[in-house]
Amino acid sequence: MTNIFAVILAAGQGTRMKSKLYKVLHPVCGKPMVEHVVDNIQSLNVSRIVTIVGHGAEKVKEQLGDKSEYVLQEQQLGTAHAVIQAESILNGLEGTTLVVCGDTPLIQPETMKALYEHHNSQNAKATILTAVAGNPTGYGRVIRDADGQVSQIVEQKDATPEQQLVTEINTGTYCFDNKALFEALKLVSNENAQGEYYLPDVIEILQKQGEIVSAYTCNDFDETLGVNDRVALAQAEEIMRNRINEKHMRNGVTIINPLTTHISADAQIGRDTVIKPGTTIEGQTVIGEDCIIGPNSNIVNSRISDRTTVQNSVVTDSYIGEDTAVGPFAHLRPETQLGNHVKIGNFVEVKKSTLGNDTKVSHLSYIGDAEVGSNVNIGCGSITVNYDGKNKFKTIIEDDVFVGCNSNLVAPVKLGAGSFIAAGSTITKEVPADAMGIARSRQENKLDYAKKLK
Ligand code: UD1
Ligand code: MG
């Protein structure tokens, strides 16, 4: 099999986005556009991936890490000029080069593969992926000759009124014979409306040289959407969201209202889990089977085990065991780990804490920097006092502890196994195992005094 190389164009500023964030880093379903492109290409059998960076080069490299090699395009003189930068890596190599724009995040790997196969079957030097657009404005138009062969691509700003009527567009994805590509790039000029070196001009150059130039049409324009402004960004988000939701539904996940359910491209969800409306599942989240998530919940980079429910809650960078109930209105902050059969009730916040199996924090509590054992009951309104304004301290609560309502556990402090904290206590010293800790002033009743006050 011949070598396949990929070049991703990601050096542009993205002026039309009117943004401080470089265009290809704008997220679609939570992942930067260019990363969708790179991840899709990685799933193909490609020997080298070269990303052309320029504007925001460091940020783009930081985002993609070692998924790609990089070449810097110092000045953005056009898409042909961008590809020429890859010469230092790809020049003279035998093989096929797939070129994809970093702003087309929806093109599926299967489509790239079909393009490649078509290119091979035609023995072509260049094959362009085209699509038919309802509204082709802004895209390069595919001009075919009387025999239906592609003869050139004309950019919107260079197109005659007649050419502007053409609805077949250049998607910005191509396959080239690697050597022919770099030879032809030398002949591209910038004599056009934008004074740029256009990559699509390579098509006309090769065609005029008598080489075989072909086109492969993608039947689904949505896949090929190029994101140049925020309107297209929202369209891309909608298309990707539908695609992701549909994948999960086909895999056995119930999504009550797909229109208000946002799931990241990389999230995994088990069968018979129900996602209720208004829920956002972000990052590398993994959710087990038979869970109920939502309504109105936000889960970020977390693992949720089977048969757990999360209602109207926010969960970030946390792990939740099986058969556990979170919410309504709970907040699990980073580094929270909940065991199995745990209950976290309303208005409870947990941060950087571990809670063992069968432990319950049912109402109005803050648990921070704590190690809580199993079968612990933390009464309503109890909190770990973990911060003195400068430093954070740890609270250790061993198995089978009962903390009465409205207790302050002033860290560092330890409650021994089986101990009992009387309601309303402010605990500042260790409570030994099986002891009762009580730390509150005694009650005094002044008989008939209330009458005097009235
Ligand atoms: C480009 C195509 C157009 C096609 C459309 C599909 C050209 C000249 N036009 O237009 O035919 O219909 O994509 O979406 O190729 N870039 C660089 N360096 C540069 C210029 C651009 O790396 O000097 C990158 C951009 O970051 C972007 C990609 O190339 O990811 C495409 O550039 P963009 O300006 O979006 O081109 P379009 O006008 O969309
Ligand atoms: Mg574009």
UniProtKB/TrEMBL annotation:
It comes from the Bacteria. It comes from Ureibacillus aquaedulcis. Acetyl-CoA binds at residues 386-387, 423, 440. Binds 1 Mg(2+) ion per subunit. PROSITE patterns: HEXAPEP_TRANSFERASES. Pathway: Bacterial outer membrane biogenesis; LPS lipid A biosynthesis; Nucleotide-sugar biosynthesis; UDP-N-acetyl-alpha-D-glucosamine biosynthesis; UDP-N-acetyl-alpha-D-glucosamine from N-acetyl-alpha-D-glucosamine 1-phosphate: step 1/1; Nucleotide-sugar biosynthesis; UDP-N-acetyl-alpha-D-glucosamine biosynthesis; N-acetyl-alpha-D-glucosamine 1-phosphate from alpha-D-glucosamine 6-phosphate (route II): step 2/2. It is found in: Cytoplasm. Its cofactor is Mg(2+). One of its GO terms (molecular function) is UDP-N-acetylglucosamine diphosphorylase activity. The lineage of its organism: Bacteria, Bacillati, Bacillota, Bacilli, Bacillales. It catalyses: alpha-D-glucosamine 1-phosphate + acetyl-CoA = N-acetyl-alpha-D-glucosamine 1-phosphate + CoA + H(+); N-acetyl-alpha-D-glucosamine 1-phosphate + UTP + H(+) = UDP-N-acetyl-alpha-D-glucosamine + diphosphate. Residues 6-217 form the Nucleotidyl transferase domain. Mg(2+) binds at residues 103, 228. The gene is glmU. In the N-terminal section; belongs to the N-acetylglucosamine-1-phosphate uridyltransferase family. This is Bifunctional protein GlmU. Gene3D superfamilies: Hexapeptide repeat proteins, Spore Coat Polysaccharide Biosynthesis Protein SpsA, Chain A. Residues 252-454 are annotated as: N-acetyltransferase. Catalyzes the last two sequential reactions in the de novo biosynthetic pathway for UDP-N-acetylglucosamine (UDP-GlcNAc). The C-terminal domain catalyzes the transfer of acetyl group from acetyl coenzyme A to glucosamine-1-phosphate (GlcN-1-P) to produce N-acetylglucosamine-1-phosphate (GlcNAc-1-P), which is converted into UDP-GlcNAc by the transfer of uridine 5-monophosphate (from uridine 5-triphosphate), a reaction catalyzed by the N-terminal domain. UDP-N-acetyl-alpha-D-glucosamine binds at residues 9-12, 23, 73, 78-79, 140, 155, 170, 228, 333, 351, 366, 377. Its EC number is 2.7.7.23, 2.3.1.157. The keyword Acyltransferase applies.
